[in-house]
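Researcher: Next sequence.
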Amino acid sequence: MKLKPSILDEYVKDKTTQQHLGRTRFTSPDDKLVLEDEGARIVLTGPVVPTASLVTGVVASVRGRILPSGEFCVSEICYAELGAQPVAPPPLSLHSPGSGPQVPRAPARYIALTSGLGIGDAGADPLPLQLMVDYLTGALGGREEQTLASGVVRMVIAGGLLASSAALARAGTYADARTREGALAGLRDADAALSQLAAALPLDVMPGEADPANASLPQQALHRALLPWAAAAGEGLVRASNPHEFDVEGVRFLGLSGQNVDDVVRYAELDDRTEVLEWMLRWRHMAPTSPDTLAAYPFHDRDPFVLDTCPHVFFAGNQPEFGTRMVTGEAGQRVRVVSVPAFSVSPCLVLVNLNTLACHPIYFNAESMDT
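Model: Next structure:
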């Protein structure tokens, strides 16, 4: 991959280096796929080799033959595929074909997913965020909308709480009161919004790329001192890590703030973010490009990003647009993958039905609210 940035580029006085680093994708038609282990590496070739859709870090087995040129002609390629999945709770089994007598359907219950609130951006419109807060707290909409909102049992903000955390560096000990007030304005606005949400329903807040947390994955939870009003809600606020895994009524959720998906898109010809999430499930690794091109803590005894088990819902935040698909495994696993858009770009709240795993996006804007 000749367009892939290298740390050595910092010491090379090449005018094209700046152009390469400014790219959003580093693939080229000349890229080759190389299979590597502890002892050797060999170039893979053949019509079944998906060079454009694989990235560094994927574990796979291949079958084929060695050519006189020294390359390996692949006739078949195999991935780890989806891992074992926890037994689905009864509501998820009610709608399966041939499952026997139908049990009366329970009232719909939802998990709300959003990300990329981008609070603190002076040029952003604050009204969509307030509409979402009012909707979830029952202060917006008619009877139908309020009935839908009353079914939300938990909300997850998948990173991107702040537009930028760079301003927080100006709120140091020696900063004057006016500078400190301006630097902390975005964080206080975020704390005020989260305190309203945490008082109405359980709320999980994950750190993102621009939030005040460690940059490398896995990201630790936001410090309690950053959100004092929201933290006063007690168990109503969960300061979660990134990645974040949790169970609700027997349904297992696993999500990240989106850095893993964005990095794969840079080094593969994959445009559909839900397809990237599906490949991660089949590769059985949620961040295959770490630590090569995605910053990650150097674990020496284990890889925390390996998917030993398969969740029921796999999501990524801060994506360009909403998307979803159902992924089916060879052993009958069913996983709902969700691309959660950045709220500051597309003001969307995604509701995941705990009974059926169906997704219901709700969009907020100043003129109307489309459901």
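Model: The two ends are 43 Å apart (CA to CA). The helical segments are 15-21, 90-93, 127-136, 143-150, 177-200, 228-231, 259-266, 273-283.
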